[in-house]
Amino acid sequence: MQWTSERKRQLMEKIKKYKPDVKSVSQARVLLVGPVGAGKSSFFNSVNSIFRGNMTSQAICGSAGTSLTTQFRTFTIKSGKHGEPIPLILCDTMGLEEASGAGLDMEDLVSIYKGHVQDRYQFNPMTPLSEDVPGYRKHVSLKDQIHCVVYVVDACRVSLLSAKIVEKFAAIRKKTNQIGIPQLVIMTKVDEACPLVSEELQNVYMSHYIQRKIQELSASLGIPVSGILPVKNYSHELELNQNTDLLLLSALDQMLNYADSFFENQPEEEKEEL
Is the pLDDT of residue 66 over 50? Predict the structure, then answer.
C-alpha cells in the first residue's frame, strides 16, 4: 500500500472512470451482507464522504440488537455535492441475525441477486417477496442484478461469530457460488481490534493480530485470505483522513475488479463489447 495523496487521487480517478465491459450496464452493483452492527451502512457513509469531500450520514446506522436496516436500499455515490454519480451502486439490506426466521431471508436474498427487488422495498420477516407483491420487479436485465457480493464482518467479533451466523454465511456462500457471483470480505473496525493499528492505521498490514483475524475469518467463511480486505469506517470523526480513505478506496477498487470477473463470465451475447 502506498500511503500518499497521489495514490488516493489515482484510486479516485480509476473508480470514477470505471466502465463495465457490458454494453447494457453502466454501473456495477455491489451487495453488502453481514451480521447486525458489522458496519454495512457505515461503510457506505464512509465511501460517500470520501467522494463528497465531507462527512455524510445518508444511510441509517447505529447500534441495536436487531437490524436497523429493514428496507432494501440502493445507494448512488456522487463525486462532489452536485457531481456525476460514480459507476458503482452499493446495495444495503437487513443484517444477518442468529434466530431462525429473523434477519435476511435466503429467498429474499436470491430475489435481490437476480434484480427483482426494487429500491426501498420493505422486507416482511413473515413472508419472502413474491411476484404479486408491490416492490417486485418482474422484468429484469443484467444491469438490475448484483455483480459482486461483499460480506462485512467486525474485526472485534471474528472469534465471537456464533455457529448459527457461520452456518448462515455458509448457506449464503453456497447459493452465491451456484448463481456465479464473485465474493469478497471487508473486515471493519481494524483500529478497534488492534492497539497498534489504532495508534497508526498504516500498521494494518504489519499487525500480526490483524493477520491472524484475517486467517481465522478465511477459515470460518471459506473465502481466500486475498479476498479479505481490512478497512476502518468513519464513526466519530469530523474530518476526512487520508489513510482511512486509502483503505476504503482500495476495497472499492477490488470490488470493481471482482465485478469485472462477473461480467467476463456472462455469455457472449450478453456482453457486446463497448
Answer: no
